[in-house]
Amino acid sequence: MPWNLTSPTAQLGDIVQLVGLRHKHFIFTLTEGGELHTHRGIVKHDDLVGLPWGSQLFSHMGSPFFLLQPMLGDILTNLPRNTQILYPKEIGFLLTTMGIGPGQRVLEAGTGSGSMTIALAYSVGKSGKIYSYERRPEFQNLARKNIVRLGLDEQVEFKLGDIADGFEERDVDALFLDVPNPYDYIPQVRQSIKSGGFFGALVPTTNQAGRLIQSLQRNQFAFLEMCEVLLRYYKTEPTRLRPTDRMVAHTGFLIFGRKINIIEDPRSVDLLKEIGMLSKLDDPEQAFSGAPVEEAAESEE
Q1: Which of 33, 128, 262, 297 has the smallest number of CB atoms closer than 10 Å to its CB?
Q2: By the 8 A CB rule, do 145 and 111 touch?
């Protein structure tokens, strides 16, 4: 695997990171006879082969660097891109909240440059599978190159097309949408996700978030949550600990939900009210008068 996280030393073909003064870093693949040209001098790839991770080295101008294995966040923020990518602060929260793990089948729509695709493929491992839908071939081609470079392509199956036509997969463990109008595709989402499965989406505005929440409720998704992730770093100087001058603030709203199956039984009315399915239906007989729950809820709006 080009992204080497297990061996003790750097080898040809590995993706490596050099970190120098002011934490300026460079991520590149070690090739025989290759050279890294920086404003602080040249570093020859052959001189890095066999060095233990964490080793200090110098450019031909004497500038110091440390040789490291790049972490996932470094990989994602340094991807070649033609679209805005998801930031690690959102990706990490998405992976844990949606329960993404080894062996799972996960579907995403809106591949973009592939940052979320990479994180998903890394998380599900070789025994899992990611199905990634994108309607623009130029985006998909770049994402494919990014994923092949990291050696994660066996875990990813790319699909080109409009998700309005639906997804081919069924009973996936989790599904993530990063598209401008996710609320238009929730019926298609429901067809593909397994019962109890995880749903997640990212939208930039509250207008989109409100419409998405309504669509999820109408299509029997419950335990909905909406949040944003704000990240603030501190200067690590023990005698002068304080926040850094800039922080990674709002980049999008995260919406989560679980696919449920409702039984038309008056005994469930209180629970359905709690999860937002019957917020305006107080009469159990009215709630279960013969119309499906989602239609009854919509008729009251």
Answers
A1: 33
A2: no
Give me the amino acid identity at 270: D
User: What's the pLDDT band for 87 if we cut at 50, 70, 90?
Assistant: confident
Above 60 in pLDDT, residue 288?
no
pLDDT of residue 279: 57
Q: Which residue has the tokens 């690590």?
A: 236
Going from N- to C-terminal start, the domains of the chain cover: 15-70, 74-261, 263-301
* Contact in structure between 172 and 146 (CB atoms under 8 Å): no
CA dist 86 and 4 (Å) reads: 23
Q: What value does the mean pLDDT of the chain take?
A: 90
**Minimum mean pLDDT range among 175-179, 195-199, 251-255, 260-264:** 260-264
pLDDT in tens, 36-73: 999 999 999 999 999 999 999 999 999 999 999 999 99
pLDDT at residue number 285: 54
Strands 242-243 and 193-203: unpaired
Using the Cα atoms of residue 180, residue 97, residue 163 and residue 219 in order, give the sign of their dihedral. Answer: negative
CATH of 15-70, one of 1.10.1060.10, 3.30.310.50, 3.10.330.20, 3.40.50.300: 3.10.330.20
Interhelix angle 115-124/137-149, rounded to 10 degrees, is 40
- Rounded-to-integer distance, Cα 116 and Cα 174, Å: 13
142: left (phi over 0), alpha (psi -120 to 50) or beta: alpha
**What tokens appear for 182 in the block?**
């996710």
Spatial separation of the C-alpha atoms in residues 253 and 85, rounded to whole Å: 14
CATH topology of domain 74-261: Rossmann fold (3.40.50)
Q: Return all residues near 50 (Cβ < 8 A) that are at least 6 apart.
A: 9, 10, 11
Residues β-bridged to residue 57: 65
Query: What is this structure's pTM?
Result: 0.86
